[in-house]
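User: Last request for today: this protein with thiamine diphosphate, please.
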Amino acid sequence: MTELDFMTSPQSGELGRFLQQMLLIRYFEQQVEERYRDAEIPGFVHVAIGQEAVAVGACAALAPGDVITSTHRSHAHTLAKGTPARAVMAELYGKVEGCSRGRGGSMHLYDVERGNLGSSAVVGGALGIATGAALAFSLRSEPRVALAFFGDGATASGLFHESMNLAQLWRLPVVFLCENNRWAESTPLAQHSPIADLTQRAQAFGMTALEVDGQDVEAVYRATAEALAHARSAAGPVFVLAETYRLAPHNVGDQQEYRDKEEYELTRSTQDPIAKLRERLALSDERFAELEREAEAAVADAVEFARHGTDPDPQTLLEDVYA
Amino acid sequence: MTELDFMTSPQSGELGRFLQQMLLIRYFEQQVEERYRDAEIPGFVHVAIGQEAVAVGACAALAPGDVITSTHRSHAHTLAKGTPARAVMAELYGKVEGCSRGRGGSMHLYDVERGNLGSSAVVGGALGIATGAALAFSLRSEPRVALAFFGDGATASGLFHESMNLAQLWRLPVVFLCENNRWAESTPLAQHSPIADLTQRAQAFGMTALEVDGQDVEAVYRATAEALAHARSAAGPVFVLAETYRLAPHNVGDQQEYRDKEEYELTRSTQDPIAKLRERLALSDERFAELEREAEAAVADAVEFARHGTDPDPQTLLEDVYA
Amino acid sequence: MPETKTRFSYREAVRDAMSQAMRRDPDVFVMGQDIAEHGGSQKVTLGMLEEFGPDRVRNAPISEMALTGAGIGAAMLGMRPIVEIMYEDFLTLAMEQLVNHAAKERYMSGGQLKVPLTVRTQGGAGWSSAAQHGQQTEGWFVGVPGLKVVYPSTPRDARGLLWSSIYDDNCVVFFEHVQLYNQREELPEELEPIPLGKARIARAGEDVTVVATGPLVPEALAAAEQAEQDGISVEVVDPRTLQPLDEEAILESVRKTSRCVVAHEAVRRMGFGAEVAALVQEKAFDWLDAPVERVGACFSPLPFAPSLERACIPRREQVYAAIKRTVGSE
Amino acid sequence: MPETKTRFSYREAVRDAMSQAMRRDPDVFVMGQDIAEHGGSQKVTLGMLEEFGPDRVRNAPISEMALTGAGIGAAMLGMRPIVEIMYEDFLTLAMEQLVNHAAKERYMSGGQLKVPLTVRTQGGAGWSSAAQHGQQTEGWFVGVPGLKVVYPSTPRDARGLLWSSIYDDNCVVFFEHVQLYNQREELPEELEPIPLGKARIARAGEDVTVVATGPLVPEALAAAEQAEQDGISVEVVDPRTLQPLDEEAILESVRKTSRCVVAHEAVRRMGFGAEVAALVQEKAFDWLDAPVERVGACFSPLPFAPSLERACIPRREQVYAAIKRTVGSE
Ligand SMILES: Cc1ncc(C[n+]2csc(CCOP(=O)(O)OP(=O)(O)O)c2C)c(N)n1
Ligand SMILES: Cc1ncc(C[n+]2csc(CCOP(=O)(O)OP(=O)(O)O)c2C)c(N)n1
Ligand SMILES: [Mg+2]
Ligand SMILES: [Mg+2]
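Assistant: Here's the final one, the structure of the complex with thiamine diphosphate:
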C-alpha cells in the first residue's frame, strides 16, 4: 500500500458535505422509524442509525463508474451513493416513483444508473455478485471497482468465504467492506465468530486488509480510497473492516431484549458519528441547527413525495419478470 | 499443545502393522484400477495411491468410539478404519455383501458400526456432518472425537468455512484433516487457492493448526493423536494439514493431460509412502516380498468374494428410502 | 373428569411440541439464528432459552449450510435435532445438505443410518416482505425421495405433527406460515401426536373437493362458506403431510364429489397442486366431471408493493372463483 | 450450392455454440471446474482453452455458490457469462444464488437490470454414478419465475438452443444429459439459432401424444416404433424449453390424439410431468379419452448397483407400457 497522497484526502469543503449527507441519512432513518410505526411503510425495515459515516465515507471515495452492492440495511448506502431521498422513500412506500418502481421495497433498493447494483436481503447474498461485477471490469480492462457492503454477521456465510477466495485468486478489483457493528440481529459477535479481530478472515486468503474507525467519516473515506486505489491498480481485492455501532434496534419493532440497556445508552451517547464530525468541524450551534433543518426539510419533502406516489397498477404485475 | 508423550507414539510393532495396511490399500487400489478398466466395476472410481500413509496413520490414532467422514476418494479411509477388504470390494461391485449393501458404490462407503459415517461424493459435503457428530459428543459429554477427511479442493467450498467457524465457535471435538495432494481433479492448488500454506485457512477462525508430512505414516499418526487429544480435552477443534501426493490420475480413466509427465514420474519415484516406510523399517527383501504377497492375496480374495457376490434384487429397490 | 383445555396459538403450539419433547428427551435440542434471548424472528422459541439453557437452545451464526449439516451429523449419532431456518427462502442455502445428504444417507448406507432431523422453517406472503422473504418452497422437497414434508394449518395440527416429526426417524422439513402464528384453538394440555401421512377433512361436503395447504386452508374454508350461500357444498381436505401424501383421502373425496380444486400460496406452475392435479386425474379419471383447477400465486417473484402483492397471492376470492368455475363447468 | 454439413455429436454441438458465440462476442466467456486443460469432466470444453485462453475459459475452484454469483454479477454488467456446474446435483449449492438473485434481480429492480447468464450443467443416470451424481433436478427451476429452463435432446437442438440461451437476456439453466453426449447428427456449419419456448414435434402420430424430455426423447421414439408394430400411431413432442413452455404445441397434439403420456428421467413425483399432466387435463379436459400417464424414476435416491438402477430409471419399455395402457383404456 502506498502512502495516502493529497488526492485521496477529502478537500476541506468535503467534510461539510459529508455532514450534510450524514444528517440527511439520520433524519431519513428517524422518519422511516416513525412512518413505519404509523403503518405507512409496509414490510419490515432496518435503519442504519449509527453507521452513517461508513456509508458516506465509503461512497464518497468511489469514482464514477464504480459500483456497489448493499444489504438488508440499505437506505444509507443508497442515499450516500446519490439516489434522491424522494426515490428511496417512495420505494419504501411501495410506489412507482420509488428507485425500484415499488417492486423492491426497503431491502431491495436499486439505482443502476448511479452504480448501485442493489441490495440483497439474504445475508451475504450479494458478495458473489460484486465479485462478478469486478470480474467484468477485469475482463474488459476497465479501471473500475466494485465495492460490497456487508455486516459482521455475513462473515459466517459460506458465500463470503467463496467470494473472498475467488476475488483474491483472480486478483479482481473488488473491495469487501465489512461494517462490524458487533451484532447480527440479536446475536453478538462473540456468539457468531470465534475471533474478535475480523481482519483475520482476510488472512485465510492472503488478502490485504485495512481496519478503520467507522465512526470517523474522514478515516472511512481515506481507507476506502486506499482500498479502491489498490484494487484499481490490479493489485487485487481489499478487505476493509469498519468498526461501527448499531445505535438502533436491528429492525423497527425489535425490542432488543437481548441487549444491555446501559451499554446501549452509553454507546448511543458516545459513538454518534454525527456528533463526532460536528465536534471535529467546530460548527456553531446555529450553523448546525441550520443543517439539521435542511436535512429535516429534505426528508419531509421525501415523505410527502412518497405519500403522493402512485401505487403500482396490478395490471403491471407480470412486467419485468423476464427481460 | 503439549509435547507428545510416549502414549501417542506408535509402539514398535505398530509400524509393521501400518506397513501391512498400506500395502493392502495399495494392492486394493491397483486391483480396482484393473477391475475398472475391465469393466467389472461400474460407475467411476478414485483411488488413493500415494495417500495411504494419511489414511493409515490417522485412523490408527483414533480411539474406539471416534468416528470419521470421508470423501469421493474413500477406499483407503474405509480400509484403514477397519472395514474388511471383501466388504469394500463387494460394494464397488454393487453387491449386497458390500459395506453399503450395494446401494452406495465407490463414492459412498459406510460402516457405521466401525465408526465410519460414510463418504460424501459432493466435495466438502460431509464437513457439516462431522461437525454435527462432534456436537452430539459435546452435548452428551462423551469423550469422543469426529475426524473429517477432505482434500485441498474442498477448502474452497463455503461449507468448509461455515463448518470450521461453527466448530471453533462451539469448541467441538472435531479434527479437520486436509489431505493436500495439491490437485483438485485437474486443477492445481495455485489455480484454486490464492495461498500456498493452507494452515492459514485455520487462522480465519483462530483454530489450532498442525502441519504434517503426509508421506510419513508415523508423523501422521503422531500429529493426529495430538489433534485428537486436544479435541478430546474439550480444547476445541484442530485443523491438520497433511502434505501428500496423488500418485495416480484423479479417477481411473483420467488421462492427466494437464499434468507434467516428468513431474509426475519424479513424484511417483520419490514420494511413495510405502517405499519410505520400508526403508525406515529396514526390512529385508524377503520379508517385504512376503508382506506384498499377503496383501496381494487378501485383495485377490476380496475380488473373488466380490465377483461371487449377490446383485441386489430389484424387488428391494424401495427398501431404506425411509426408516 | 373433563380434560383441561387451553387456548393455544399456532406459535405456542409449535413451541409446546418442542418444549414437551425437550423436557422428556435430552436428545432433542434446537439450533438456529436468534432463537435464544430473542426467541426467534417470529418469537416461536421465546422463553425456551430460560427453560433449557444455551446448549439446547443454541444461537447460531448465519451459516445455514453448516447448521443443517450439523443437524444431520448429530441426528446420525442418534440425537433428534431441530434446526430452525429463519425464512424458507434460505432453505436454498441448505438445499445441498438436505437433498444430497439428509435425504440419502440412509439409502446410500444400505439402511445403516437414520437421520431423525427436523428442519423447521416459516415464511409466506401477505405482509410485503418482498421477493426474498416470502416465497413458498415446499414443492421442491416433496419430490425428493427420503425427505418428509409437513405443512400444518392449525394449532392442533402444528403441535401434533411437529411432535411426530421430531420422533420420526427421517428428515422432516416442517413448514410454518407467518400468517398462521396468531391463529388460536383450544387444545388439551396433553399433547396428541398426529401421525405423518394422514390428511384431515377440514370440512365435509358433497359437490366439490378443495385440497388446500397452509394459509389456504382457512381461506378455502371461508370460500366454502361463501359457496354454501350459492347452494354449493364444499369438502376441504388438508393433506397436512405433503410427503408421504395421503393419496387415498384425496381420492376418496374426489370420488364422492367428482370435482376438485387445489389451492396453495406457492406459485401455480410446478407447485404442489401440479402433483395433486396429476394424481387425481390419473387415479380418479372416470369420476371427474370437470378439470382439476389449480389456485396459486402468479408467475412472478413476490412484489413488494401491497397493491401488487395482493394481486399476486391467492386468497379466498380465488378459491371461491375456482369452485364456481369447477362446479359450473359441464 | 449445397450447404456443407458435418456430423456433430451432442457434445460437439454444445461446444460449437459456445465457441461461435465467443468468437463473435468478447462478452461471452465460460467458467467452471476443470474446464481448461482438462476440457471439463465430460470433455465438452475440450480445446477451448487453446482457442480462447485462460481468461475466457476460466478454471475455477470448488465454489459453486460464488461462481454462480460471479456469473450473475458479470451478467448484470452486460457480459454474457456461461457457468458450467459439473453435475446438476451440485446446482443445490447454487440454488440460493439462482433462485433469490438470478431469477429476481430484474423484477426487484423494477426492470433496471438484466441477468443474461447461462448456467450449463449435465447429469443423469444409467452408468451407476449413484445418488449424488445422477439425479435430475430440472423441475425445481421450472417453478421459479424469472428463470428459463432448457433441456435439449439432439445435437441440433443443443446447438441452436444454447446459442439462444447465451443471447437471451435472462438467466437460463441449461440441462445436458450424459447419455446424449455421443448422439450424432448432421448439421450445417452455419449455426441455426432455435428460439426458446418452441417445442419440436419429434415424430408425428395420431393415436397418442408422448411429451418427453432429454434422454426420454430417443427412448420415446424407440417406444413409438415398437407401438407402430401394434398399429398404434404415436406423436412425440419434445418441449426442449421447459420454461417458457410451449403449452400450445402440447395441447394441439393432445387435442388431436386425445391421449397423453409424459416421460422424463426425473422422479415421477413432483417431476416436470406433474406440470404437464396438470396442464393437459386443465386445458384439454374435454378431449382426453384417458388419464395422462406419467413415466419417471422410482421414488428412491439413485441406487448404485446396476441391477437396482436399471429397475429405477425409465427407458423405452416403460414408455411403451404407458402408451399401451393409455391407448388400451376405455
Ligand atoms: C442467509 C440469511 N440468514 C438469516 C437472515 C436473517 N437476518 C437478517 S439480517 C441478520 C443479521 C445480519 O447481521 P449483519 O450481517 O452483521 O448485518 P447488520 O444487521 O448488523 O447490519 C439476519 C440473521 C437473512 N436475511 N439471511
Ligand atoms: C461440490 C462439488 N463440485 C465438484 C465436484 C467434482 N469433483 C469431484 S472430486 C473433485 C476434486 C476434489 O479435490 P480435492 O478436494 O482436493 O480432493 P482429491 O480429489 O484431491 O482427493 C471435483 C472438482 C464434486 N464432486 N463436488
Ligand atoms: Mg452486524
Ligand atoms: Mg486434492
